[in-house]
Amino acid sequence: xxxxGNNLTPVLLMGLLVLLAAATNVAAYDTEGCLSCHQYxxxxxxxxxxxxxxxxxxxxxxxxxxxxxxxxxxxxxxHIRSEVETFPHxxxxxxxxxxxxxxxxxxxxxxxxxxxxVDQMLADSVHGDGxxxxxxxxLGSPLKPGQSPCLxxxxxxxxxxxxVSGLPSDAPIIRCNTCHDEQLPVDTRQFYRHVTARTVPAxxxxxxxxxxxxxxxxxxxxxEFKLPDxxxxxxxxxxxxxxxxxxxxxxxCLDCHAGLTRNVHQIKSESDASSxxxxxxxxxxxxxxxxxxxxxPTISSAAVHLDLSRTRGIEFFIACLFxxxxxxxxGPSLMLTALKMLEIVTGRKDPAEHAHVELARExxxxxxTRAKLQRFNLHQRFQHWLLAICFITLVLTGFPLKFAxxxxxxxxxxxxxxxxxxxxxxxxAGAVLIVGLFYHAFYILTIIxxxxxxxxxxxxxxxxxxxxxxxxSDLMQMNALMFYLLRFxxxxxxxxxxxxxxxxxxxxxxxxxxxxGSTGMLMWFxxxxxxxxxxxxxxxxxxxxxxxxxxxxxxxxxxHMVSVIISPEVFPVSKAMFTGDTPIAELAAGHAAMLxxxxxxxxxxxx
Length: 607
Description:
By secondary structure, this protein is mainly α. It has helices at 10-22, 35-38, 61-64, 81-84, 116-123, 131-138, 171-180, 188-197, 205-216, 219-225, 230-235, 238-244, 253-257, 282-286, 314-346, 353-365, 367-372, 378-402, 407-415, 419-455, 459-464, 472-485, 500-524, 526-532, 536-566, 576-579, 584-590, 592-602; strands at residues 44-46, 53-55, 101-104, 110-113.
């Protein structure tokens, strides 16, 4: 290195010698010795304004990764030699990414190379016409005057995610060297690895979205260019949530806006006829080989950037409808549950509860009446546990996708083996749930048929006479229960084998299974859906599926769990679903009418 005048003091010289002595990992490609100093992460200085720190660290992988984007380049291929060959260095001229480079090719033959054609592509894209320069200003000028606008996206040397280990083996290189080793001497390994590395995305899906969000989620940039918050709407879609959970198979920004076969520097506006997102090209963009290749052309009408706050279409009204459903279905259930908890805390009891407890003990002591008190047989308990296992599995594999940005969601999906395995398990659990629904419907029809044959009652009357059917008396019972819990009446309304709350939950399971099952199948078999139905059906299906899943989880996770676990009559858990036998306290509090009915049928003596 040249040293002008007395700039190099003994102290600096000593420090330099220490650094040179400690530099043990300088790559062979660093022929100019720049990494002797710049490989240290703490190499920096405070600018003259005292408000910022300038970092001089250079990642050694810049040289150590032979398949990197700038492999085998010397520092002076980009930096002006006269400015960096002295120590301390002279003020640096910003690097121009479009200048013509003179590189040493195979056999030391000089090769002229430039990124000027990339600059021309960028100028013809939506990022041209000074848009990047304007965005840089709106972002607070992260690029200094004179720096290449390329650095706004290419903020540092970006290496292949897999590195050398993520690329194919060297087996093809051995075959290439049959000729290129001696007869046509070329560094085939470097060439092969370098070219192959360029076919692998340099950024993960998450990094890609972060990069685009730098501008597309910035309020100042969006206001300037009249842009919606596309990064936020993307992350709320299935593709975005899968990306948040670590999926590399989900489509990222470039997969749609540049396409798999186009140059990423040539992104066009959707109004451009050549753009992959143009209305005429979008179906083929969605049906790229790596995406929905078997889908119908209507798949392009499924929303990827759905923003319910900005639209007033059918999706908005469906969301409003489900908000109303949640308020008017879960709301009363939540109120009843809260009032029950208050009753437990205050210790209030139904005046007739003690008598019903004694009656339940008498009936359970008699083998004949004890059998009649069994509310669930083995077949029914099996169906319940099948439903419970499917429901729990669906919740564990489905709700992490709804909360993809949370750390617990990523952890849970990881425990299932990743998003692909979680989706697969979710699909099969849903299929078992649908099969169970059909089986239960067949089970009900069988019971109706048997009862119809036994007493000759009409089909509809037999149906309405089933113990789980909701009738006007159940509405009156719910009203009476509410008045009792609000202390407007003294005694609790007596319920039969199944009380009104259990009946409404049962109907809710039927309704929820049908809605979740049908919408889930539409999404699972989206290729069939988009071949026979408008693609917008997928947007509606996922919205309904999500809302209904929330409603189901609220009911089961709060209302049902209180009844079968937290309630003092069954705590720590109701054994009815294990043995079919209902605890005495639960029989007395929730099924007093059944006790009275069995007592009168058998003429058992009343205590």
